[in-house]
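Hey, quick one: can you model this chain's 3D structure?
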Amino acid sequence: MTRIAVYSDLHYEHGSDFTPPADLRGKIDVVVLAGDISEGRDGIERAKAIAHRLDAPAVYVPGNHEFYDGILEDVIEDLRAASNDEVHVLMNDTVKLDGTRFVGTTLWTDYRIDPDTYYSALGQLRREMNDFRFIKRRSASRNRRKLNPRWVVGLHREQRNWLESALAEPFEGPTVVVTHHAPSARSLDKNPERAKSLDAAAYASDLEYLIERYEPEAWVHGHIHDSLDYTIGSTRVLCNPYGYQIEVTNPEFDPGFTFKV
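Sure thing. Here's the predicted structure for all 261 residues.
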């Protein structure tokens, strides 16, 4: 049995002073950090501090904010280079800890949470989302270009295919999937206004078929600043985000939240 603490969206880059409760130290086996911990290398330093405080290894999947003011490929390389036995950075990677397999990737969205609004969402979100202002990536024709929605769709396809391949690999113990973006529209249920808007396309994709086919014990995600605990088939879907401290975006955040597999 593996006891796992879950945090996401700590947003230290916005002045968060969150510290995990000291009484969890020595009582958990793994801490999962489902993205938006902080920007760039500061994210891994924060992850190491959390792992050290809790005396447990961390599984860290980058969110979109990890890439702000950086080049996507370079940030991934830097985070992976800093990965060690204390903090395991997963970007299309798996790690086995305490008999549990953790399968992790950012899982950028495919903008098809409502297929009928796909093109409208692409256009509106390209104009409005900070991701497309503050994240760059390398291209063959130019050294640096701002991220765009079509690239994000390509990243989603690549990561979704990788996830399916990873989940198809036989494993005798429990499996926990960790992504930043959500795998189901059900994760938007606490915010009906957002769920009905074009913005929904930037928060979740429909991967319920993967969940139902491979039945991981749990799927942990972040990005949505609402605490979530629901099931798809036999799989528990969990989100425990801190949010933006200055706005108190998630009053339901539980600093001592854990679950067992």
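One thing worth noting: Residues 62 and 69 are 14 Å apart (CA to CA).
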